[in-house]
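Journal club prep, shared notes

We agreed each person brings one worked example of a sequence with its structure written out as tokens. Mine is SDF2 factor. I'm keeping it raw so we can talk through how to read the token line rather than staring at a rendered picture. Sequence first:
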Amino acid sequence: GRTAAVCQRGTPVRCGQAIRLTHLGTGRNLHSHRFTSPLSGNQEVSAFGEAGEGDYLDDWTVVCSGTYWVRDDEVRFQHTSTDVFLSVTGEQYGRPIHGQKEVHGMATSSQNNYWKVMEGIFMQPSEAFQTEQYHAEL
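Then the structure, token by token:
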């Protein structure tokens, strides 16, 4: 969830909703601020916070078509404070992990800021979502 909000596991994510992306291994949030990234010169994206706690610069808006972010669909993430899109363009670091690509924020939308879930843990939708999505009454 966004700053000071709790997102229950299995709750569908709405297109246009502000979220936080937390790295499970480190507990740090995907973060951005108005600093230049070292390789591409775009806006820096980094990891910030402890155990999922951070600040308002950890909030990203889900940009997708439809009502909800659906598995297997492309999605964009727009930083809520600076409006850049989470992007990767191919610049690679030599250290600390040789070949690791720079992830950064870009001011304009392009093919470099589409993301797609390729692996992870599938959560069954919450019961409220199932009722809402499949409700057939007029």
